[in-house]
Amino acid sequence: MKFDIVVIGGGLVGASLVAALQDSGLRIALIETREPPPLSKGDSSWDSRVYAISPGSASFLQSCGVWQRIDSSRVTPVYDMAVFGDDNSAKINFSSYEMGVSELAFIAENRQLQTAVWDVLNRPNEHIEIICPARCTSIVWHDSHVEVQLEDGRLIETALVAGADGVNSWVRKQAGIDISRHAYHQIGLVANFSAEHSHRNIAHQWFRRDGVLALLPLPDNLVSMVWSTTDEHANLLKELPEDELCQRVAEASSNTLGNLQVVTPPVGFPLNFVHVKNLVKPRLVLIGDAAHGIHPLAGQGVNLGLRDTRELAAQLNARGLQTDCGDFMLLRRYECARKEDILALEAVTDGLQKLFTNSNPSVARLRNLGLEITNHLPLIKNRLMQHALN
After folding, report:
1. What domain count does the chain have?
2. How far apart are CA 233 and CA 238, in angstroms?
């Protein structure tokens, strides 16, 4: 079993890399431990995990044949964003009209995105092999190739391994790549609600002293909650009766959307910061959460991963006469192209998390004043948003 590229990890980022390279002529294998859950045609339930997909990421997924396969009635455009400080008065607004764009983002369910990208991969293609479910047991790097051993005894030979297996990447560990990591001691609590008042396609976010609360618009009067809060507070919220949870969320969001009703119960994810020292080694490249782990307060984690995929696919498609996909200089071009974007988002998200969890009253006054000042400086606001649109 010989391939040009073996992608390990079939989440949205890993699968989208295969989709982006489907017409490249490269022989590609995708290894994933779990069978993706099928989406039932009659299933009208809502996935509690949603993503804010940037216009740039949506265009990329469109070019891969993925975006057009998502049920458009389940995708909600975001026209405006309202971000509030923790003093109930400081805020900053972002408008698609002021930015001169159709929308700032699209809110889409994880399940819909996964199903769409796997629909693309399951189409007949002689250059692509899906090895799923399957588990890797070892990787051995050689000068000319890489050997990937599967649990069932199969041995795969490839020119390049792409690690897309998440923030606790097994591939990264096998390669001996160093990371710096710290826990935020927070849980990202997600749930969906039906709101009394229309969200008007506005994404709301509150930087509170107990964490960061966001209400993201879904179709009709539905909203998706993402509340990044302390472990203790998150566990308390999860144990509340539904009516009390709704009341807590409504109060925390200043009753902006009126009364709330639970549509999908809360689920929590631990939050960590992970900085990866190297994105590439000879015959290895990391993408997605395997390459970085950031706080979700900016809603940019999945877009950061899709920008990895977009850049790597572009480098591989433009390799010219270079027939070796694992060539280190080719991979270094990818790493150099991605470093600035990754470092900038790591600094911004980690810095904001620390800033808004600081209990010093002087720091609190300064951060809220900063929000107000920025709100009155259109050039700075546009600069902040421009990066998020990519």
Report:
1. 1
2. 9
d(CA 139, CA 158) in angstroms, rounded, equals: 11
Query: Are residues 79 and 95 in contact, defined by beta-carbon separation less than 8 angstroms?
Result: yes
* Beta carbons of 330 and 322 less than 8 angstroms apart: yes
CATH code, domain with 350: 3.50.50.60
DSSP letter, residue 36: P
What secondary structure, in 3-state letters, does 332-372 show?
HHHHHHHHHHHHHHHHHHHHHHHHHCCCCHHHHHHHHHHHH
The answer to whether the pTM exceeds 0.90 is: yes
Q: Roughly what angle, to the nearest 10 degrees, separates helices 110-121 and 55-63?
A: 20
The answer to whether 193 and 256 have CB atoms below 8 angstroms apart is: no
Helix axes 301-317, 328-356, angle to 10 degrees: 170
Query: Each residue's pLDDT tens digit in the chain (390 positions)?
Result: 899 999 999 999 999 999 999 999 999 999 999 987 675 666 789 999 999 999 999 999 999 999 999 999 999 999 999 999 888 788 999 999 988 999 999 999 999 999 999 999 999 999 999 999 999 999 999 999 999 999 999 999 999 999 999 999 999 999 999 999 999 999 999 999 999 999 999 999 999 988 999 999 999 999 999 999 999 999 999 999 999 999 999 999 999 999 999 999 999 999 999 999 999 999 999 999 999 999 999 899 999 999 999 999 999 999 888 889 999 999 999 999 999 999 999 999 999 898 888 888 888 788 888 877 887 777 777 777 877 888
Q: Residues 6 or more apart from 373 whose CB is under 8 A from it? A: none
Of the candidates 252, 293, 236, the residue with the CA atom closest to the CA atom of residue 270: 293
Give the domain range for residue 269.
2-389
Residue type, 72: S
